[in-house]
Amino acid sequence: VPYYRRDADTPPDAAATERMRAVKREGTKPEMRIRKALHARGMRYRVNVRSLPGRPDIVFPARRVAVLVHGCFWHQHPGCASATTPRVNAVYWRPKLRRNVQRDAENVADLAELGYRTLVIWECEIKRDAPRVVERIVSALSSAGG
Ligand SMILES: [Zn+2]
How far is the CA of 1 from the centre of ligand 1 (A)? Predict the structure, then answer.
């Protein structure tokens, strides 16, 4: 029995669906690593802020810094091995992924209009060197004032 509901947004084959689920499942972990590390350093932030464009993953409202933790597949990390379009059902995936990338760009522009600086963090960067990602966020915050 499939766990997912079949609807208009469900890809038509099981393999692609399984891949999608795997990416999503895996996707929450790297962000948690960063959140925990920031918290341990005394950083306080809000998560999944619905009132801001694109519902940023981590937000430092006083410093007007938004952090987007992007899954490399869903958000098509340029040049990343994880960002390939599945060959099966490419007709389904290609426009979907393209829309994601487009929406991301719009969100960054909208955040900028609200005075927010956006840091995009890719999941593969977290896997490769989480402490370095944390440093990047910390130094962006210290240069943001507030
Ligand atoms: Zn990547």
Answer: 32
Whole-model pTM over 0.90:
no
Q: Ligand 1: distance of its center to the CA of 28 in Å?
A: 15
Tokens of 18: 């399984």
Distance between CA atoms of 25 and 6, rounded to whole angstroms?
A: 18
How far apart are alpha carbons 113 and 134 in whole angstroms?
25
> Coil, helix or strand for 37?
helix
User: What are the tens digits of pLDDT across the range 50-104?
Assistant: 999 999 999 999 999 999 999 999 999 999 999 988 888 999 999 999 999 999 9
Going from the Cα of 40 to the center of ligand 1, the distance in angstroms, rounded, reads 25
pLDDT in tens, 19-29: 666 655 544 68
User: How close is the Cα of 70 to the center of ligand 1, in Å?
Assistant: 8
How far away, in angstroms, is 6 Cα from ligand 1 center? 29
